Amino acid sequence: MKEINKFLIIVFYFFAFTFHVQSKVLSIGSSEAKIIVKVFSSLTCPHCANFHNSIFNDLKKDYIDKGLVRFEHHAFPLDLAALNAEVVIRCQSDNTKKFQFLEEIYKKQKSWAVGSDIDKINILIKQIGKDFDLTEEKMDSCLNDNEAQDEILNQRIDAQKKYKIESTPTVIVNEKKYTNKVDYKTFKKIIEKNL
């Protein structure tokens, strides 16, 4: 009986840890996809916004929706504004809405990621969040959750150790790193080579 209890405890911790780790990363696409695209980005980084705005939707239509690519957005905040935006995005529990929110954050980057007054920036982030079924109270609660911030910062530290990230966005396709600016045509060639 003791052995069974020990086994159940190990299984519980394994699943608890597994789901906890998975919750750190925003991902979309089939878990069976042949290609995994990991993008390490900061939500206040203009190059990251440009990458997302010029590549993500075409990638989704051509590869993600067809089950060929799994896309992972990895938080790599370079400042407090980016960290807070990541925290608020994770307030939304619906994965589709999370990605829509992420897209809107990138599209409106020039209007919310301005100045150095973090209180004003938080207000602007929350204005966007309200369009994705988040209440002011819910977003404030998320922003005051130190555990959520720690999780994102630990994710950044782990990524730095594993991938030696020097700039954002850093794109990893099937564990191969790409740091040069790419347009969709070039990125499509990278995907096709991996299919």
How would you characterize this protein structure?
The chain has helices at 2-23, 46-64, 80-89, 95-107, 109-112, 118-129, 136-143, 146-163, 184-194, and strands spanning 26-28, 35-41, 69-75, 170-173, 176-178. It has 195 residues and is α+β, with helices and mostly antiparallel strands. The protein has one domain (25-194): Glutaredoxin, CATH 3.40.30.10. The protein has a five-stranded mixed sheet, sandwiched between helices. The chain is globular and about 45 Å long. It starts with a helix and ends with a helix. Residues 1-23 have low confidence and may be disordered.
Feature tags:
single chain; 195 residues; alpha+beta; Glutaredoxin; 5-stranded mixed β-sheet; 9 helices; 5 strands
Summarize the entry for a quick read.
The chain is an alpha+beta fold.
- The mean pLDDT is 88
Please bin the fraction of helical residues.
55-70%
| Helix/sheet category | alpha+beta
What is the fold named in CATH at topology level?
Glutaredoxin
Q: Indicate the CATH architecture.
A: 3-Layer(aba) Sandwich
Secondary-structure map:
Blueprint: H1 2-23, E1 26-28, E2 35-41, H2 46-64, E3 69-75, H3 80-89, H4 95-107, H5 109-112, H6 118-129, H7 136-143, H8 146-163, E4 170-173, E5 176-178, H9 184-194
Parallel strand pairs: 2-3
Antiparallel strand pairs: 1-3, 2-4, 4-5
Helix pairs in contact: 3-6, 3-8
